[in-house]
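Entry for flavin-adenine dinucleotide complex. Fields follow.
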Amino acid sequence: VDPVQEWRDIVGGANVLTAPDDVAPYVTDWTGRFVGRHTTVVRPGSTAEVAEIVAACRRSGTAIVPQGGNTGMVGGGVPLHGEVVVSLRRLATVGEVDPVGHQVSAGAGATVEAVQLAAAAVGLRYAVDFGGRGTATVGGSVATNAGGINLIRYGGTREQLVGIEAVLGTGDVVRRMTGLVKDNTGYHLPSLLCGSEGTLGIVTEARFRLVPAVEHRVLAVVAFADVPAAVAAASAWRRGLRDLEAAELVLHDGVSLVAEQFGLPLPFPVAHPVYVLVEAAGSTDPTDELADAVAAVAGVRDVAVAPDEARRAALWRLREDHALAINRVGVPHKFDVTLPQHLLGEFVDRVPAVVTAELPDARTWIFGHVGDGNLHVNVTGAPPDAPALDDAVYGLVVAMGGSISAEHGIGTAKSRFLAMQRSPAELAAMRAIKTALDPDGIMNPAAILPPVRG
Ligand code: FAD
Ligand code: 2HG
Ligand code: ZN
């Protein structure tokens, strides 16, 4: 049987895309760095259809790349080797919010923003938030265990996940959507599938806990002379600022790039080297609490407080639109890394020289979730494949005791480096899990685990 015809029989001809123009948006990633091969895109409309597609792919030995919003940053969601793309976007239903249990279920193709809006409509909140919210999906954010700007307070996607439905690489459907918060009944499949980047199965639905919405929110941009002062301040706020929601670091060159690209005002009349966006939110106005916390730290050069919602949104754009602004400079080479808190300053000092030692004309942009020790190093002016650059930057990260992936995952971009980070015993355990849940190796085979040699 022709596999494409089989897929058409399952999802209907209109949901199997083969024309180059129709397929193109599914083939190249958000940054333009990862360009896959022309392929077929299958758009199932139900869990049963997903299961039939996986079963058909098992029979024909066809590799699958699951895809949601295609906002991932590590080349894990595009068909680099001509895999069939299974797009989950049609599974976009957001269920009714449970107002007693404070939970909601959503289909894999619903956007993160749709979940946030459903929660907000009943006075609750979905705690995961990041710049890609309007396009990134429930399935993709679960598959990558997306972090974002409020992880410091509420944890990442895994911490919100209280249930999952997925089609494993075997074709079997696992469903545990009761939303029981305490449920120690053996292996916790939601946690395992979260962060598995489509290598074990396809997430079709997820159930999330919701947190209380906060009525009062205040943002300050605090200027510092250097990164160590900013790190020390963020550390003090983590300890002492009860309503801390976010602590995000940006540098002056990045802020002025975003301001210039999008016509936004700069936070201060004069430039400072480093800024931290610190936001507090609570059921009572946290302005005084935030002002006291800012006054209590050393090295503050200036402070701008958003007086209203419009200014707050404009200040946030200076941070959130970094990725968009950098894309306009050129195709970025992204490093999403974590360092021990006390080494963040040294890392920011050292990394630009490590980059230019490999590529003298390249430019380095650094920003990130400083409260979590997570920095985003973006390099423009590098070719899409720059193995010596990767070696140099990841070498520095590992030498300094950091992690080569904080929140974006391993994808295909970092699989070569996984063994620098995880022990042979850990890799063997991961492989055993992969083989058990995806015996034919059809689920996103190029992502996460490096190919076995020999
Ligand atoms: P895709 O890009 O489509 O896929 C990502 C991975 O998940 C791929 O490996 C894919 O195969 C797999 N996958 C997708 N759907 C499924 C499914 N249903 N079942 C199984 N596997 C699946 N990330 C953060 O962690 N923190 C941030 O602050 C953050 N900010 C961002 C800001 C912007 C502007 C953008 C564009 C992205 C940002 N991201 C951030 C990246 C983040 O990883 C993704 O936005 C999101 O988690 C991926 O969702 P997606 O639906 O686009 O997934
Ligand atoms: C962010 O925090 C995202 O803005 C994107 O995780 C990071 O573009 C990046 O490197
Ligand atoms: Zn981030």
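NOTE: The pocket of zinc ion (ligand 3) is lined by residues 369, 376, 407 (CB under 6 Å).
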